[in-house]
Specification:
Shape: globular
Strand order of the largest sheet: 7-4-6-5-8
Helix content: 25-40%
Distance between the termini: 32 Å
Structural class: alpha+beta
Strand content: 25-35%
Number of domains: 1
CATH topology: Alpha-Beta Plaits
CATH class: Alpha Beta
């Protein structure tokens, strides 16, 4: 079970219940405090992280910026064992990243949050994952398409807007992203 709590000072909180192969039950708790930049993680291994943001400009340089983001992502991710997918539509990004916890967290906190090409960046999903959904792509780009639009119309009665995703719809949306055809960047 994953709970995501938004607030002025509390950026993200998650409690995950899972069972190990030995059938022992484990609880893992994460807290990321945005204002104090205090990060507490109590797990090792591979993680899946998703964030949303808004593109700063909607001018003619958009396509060049997007291609630069994708090229930089492919190069960086391939070198650091990170896989994932980027989706853009209606001025918003949603990106899902997978890989070793240290590599994914370094990328998000040290590079993505500092990128001037987007704003209103919010971490909306974080989990330990033994299975990678995007394991074939250093970065895959999925343009807005009817499948993604229909997901939002069915679940949020609105056009594509990743800021509407919540603790109930984010998991199914990430799985939907993993099935999308698009511009594929293979490792």
């Amino acid at each position: 079970m994953i709970q995501i709590i938004y607030g002025k000072d509390l950026f993200f909180e998650s409690v995950i219940l899972y069972t190990k192969p030995s059938c022992a039950v484990c609880f893992i708790t994460y807290k990321i405090i945005y204002k104090g930049l205090r990060v507490l993680f109590r797990m090792m291994g591979y993680v899946r992280l998703a964030y949303i943001s808004k593109f700063c400009r909607n001018d003619d340089s958009f396509k060049l910026d997007l291609m630069d983001i994708l090229t930089t992502s492919v190069n960086h991710n391939a070198q650091h064992g990170i896989t994932g997918m980027l989706c853009y539509g209606n001025g918003c990004f949603i990106q899902c990243l997978e890989g070793k916890k240290s590599a994914v967290c370094d990328l998000y906190f040290k590079k993505i949050l500092k990128d001037h090409r987007h704003t209103s960046c919010q971490l909306i999903y974080f989990e330990e994952s033994a299975v990678q959904l995007f394991d074939q792509w250093a970065m895959k780009f999925a343009p807005l398409n009817p499948n993604l639009r229909n997901f939002f119309l069915e679940n949020h009665q609105n056009e594509f807007d990743p800021y509407l995703l919540n603790s109930i719809t984010i998991g199914p949306f990430i799985k939907l992203l993993s099935t999308q055809q698009g511009w594929e960047y293979y490792i």
